[in-house]
C-alpha cells in the first residue's frame, strides 16, 4: 500500500499553489523567498511524481492563471493538502493562531447584512477572523477566480460562471422610492409605464441591479428617462431625499435600508424580477473548516438578518 503513494512534499505543493495565485514564476518565487530556478525544480519534481503537466511553460504574455486543465483540476486538492498539513503541524501547539476567512462581497450586502453577521460570528467563533473586502457584483466573481486567498463571495450575480457554485441566501423585491409627498405615491396601481415620464436615478452600468430594471422596462418596450447614475443604494437614497429624482431599488423585507429616511416607498410587485443574493465558492474546491463554519453560519442567520 505504501509503495503506491507518491512522495509529495509541502514545499512542492506550496510552489504550485503560489504559482497559481501569483500568475508567474518570478512573482511566486519572490513570495516564497526562493530563486526562480528553485521554484522550477520544485514544480518539475511535483509533475514527475504525478506524471502530468500542471502549468504552461511557454514564454510570452503572462497569464493570471497559467495552469493546464490538469493543473486547474489539481489546484483545490493542493490547497486542501496544505490546509491539512497546516492543521497537523498545529495539532500539539498550546496556543493556535486565529484562522482567517477572506470574504469578497458587494457594498450593499456588507452594509446591510454581513456586518451584523460577522459581529455575531466572531462572538460564536472567537478563534476565526473574517476579513471583508468590498467589490461590485461582477468583481466578486472575478476575484474568486483570480485571488485564491479569497474563500467566499457574497453577491447577487446577474449570470453565473460555470467555474463557481452558488448557494442562495435570500431574494429582494423592487420598490419605487421618491421624495416625500410625491404625486406617484398616490397612484393605486403603479406601473412601469407611469415611471418613464419622470427622471430616474439608476445604478451604474454593469451592475446586476441596473440590468434587472432595464430588462423589465425593455420587456414592455419602454425606455426609461435616466437622469443620474451612481454606484450604490445608499447614495441613491440620499439623492432622492435631496429631491434630485426618483429611483427603483431592491429593499430588504426588514425595512432596514430605508428606516428613518425622508423618502416615500411603494412596492412594485412582480413587475421586476426579484434580485437573488447568495454565496459563491469555487466549484469542486474543498473548503477549510473555518470557511465552512462561516458559510453555514451565514446560511442559518440570513432569515433573521433580512426579514
Instruction: Identify low-pLDDT runs.
Output: none
User: What is the annotated CATH architecture of the largest domain?
Assistant: 3-Layer(aba) Sandwich
Which whole number gives the mean pLDDT? 87
**Count of domains:** 3
Distance between the termini: 55 Å
What's the β-strand tally? 9
What's the main sheet like? 9 strands, mixed
Helix content: 40-55%
Give the amount of beta strand, in percent. Answer: 15-25%
Indicate the CATH class of the largest domain. Answer: Alpha Beta
* CATH fold topology of the largest domain: D-Maltodextrin-Binding Protein, domain 2
Order of helices and strands: HHHHEHEHEEHEHEHEEEH
What is the subunit organization of this protein?
Answer: single chain
Please state the CA-atom Rg, rounded to the nearest Å. 24 Å
Number of helices: 10
* Envelope shape: elongated
- The CATH superfamily of the largest domain is known as Periplasmic binding protein-like II
Amino acid at each position: 500500500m505504501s509503495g503506491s503513494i507518491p512522495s509529495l512534499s509541502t514545499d512542492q505543493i506550496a510552489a504550485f499553489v503560489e504559482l497559481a495565485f501569483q500568475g508567474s514564476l518570478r512573482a511566486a518565487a519572490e513570495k516564497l523567498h526562493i530563486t526562480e530556478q528553485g521554484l522550477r525544480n520544485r514544480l518539475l519534481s511535483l509533475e514527475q511524481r504525478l506524471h502530468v503537466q500542471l502549468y504552461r511553460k511557454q514564454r510570452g504574455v503572462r497569464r493570471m492563471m497559467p495552469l493546464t486543465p490538469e493543473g486547474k483540476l489539481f489546484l483545490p486538492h493542493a490547497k486542501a493538502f496544505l490546509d491539512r498539513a497546516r492543521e497537523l503541524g498545529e495539532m500539539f501547539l498550546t496556543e493556535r493562531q486565529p484562522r482567517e476567512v477572506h470574504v469578497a462581497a458587494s457594498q450593499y450586502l456588507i452594509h446591510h447584512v454581513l456586518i451584523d453577521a460577522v459581529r455575531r460570528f466572531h462572538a460564536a467563533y472567537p478563534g476565526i477572523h473574517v476579513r471583508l473586502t468590498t467589490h461590485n457584483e461582477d468583481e466578486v466573481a472575478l476575484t474568486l477566480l483570480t485571488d485564491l486567498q479569497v474563500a467566499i463571495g457574497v453577491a447577487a450575480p446577474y449570470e453565473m460562471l460555470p467555474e463557481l457554485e452558488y448557494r442562495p441566501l435570500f431574494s429582494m423585491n423592487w420598490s419605487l422610492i421618491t421624495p416625500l409627498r410625491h404625486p406617484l405615491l398616490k397612484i393605486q396601481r403603479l406601473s412601469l409605464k407611469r415611471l418613464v415620464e419622470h427622471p430616474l436615478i439608476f445604478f451604474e452600468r454593469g451592475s446586476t441591479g441596473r440590468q434587472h430594471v432595464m430588462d423589465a422596462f425593455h420587456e414592455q418596450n419602454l425606455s426609461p428617462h435616466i437622469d443620474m447614475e451612481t454606484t450604490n443604494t445608499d447614495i441613491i437614497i440620499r439623492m432622492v431625499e435631496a429631491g434630485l429624482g426618483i429611483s427603483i431599488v431592491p429593499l430588504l423585507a426588514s425595512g432596514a435600508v430605508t428606516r428613518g429616511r425622508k423618502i416615500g416607498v411603494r412596492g412594485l410587485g412582480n413587475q421586476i424580477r426579484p434580485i437573488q443574493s447568495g454565496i459563491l465558492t469555487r466549484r469542486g474546491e474543498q473548503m477549510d473548516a473555518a470557511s465552512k463554519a462561516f458559510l453555514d453560519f451565514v446560511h442559518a442567520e440570513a432569515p433573521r438578518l433580512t426579514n
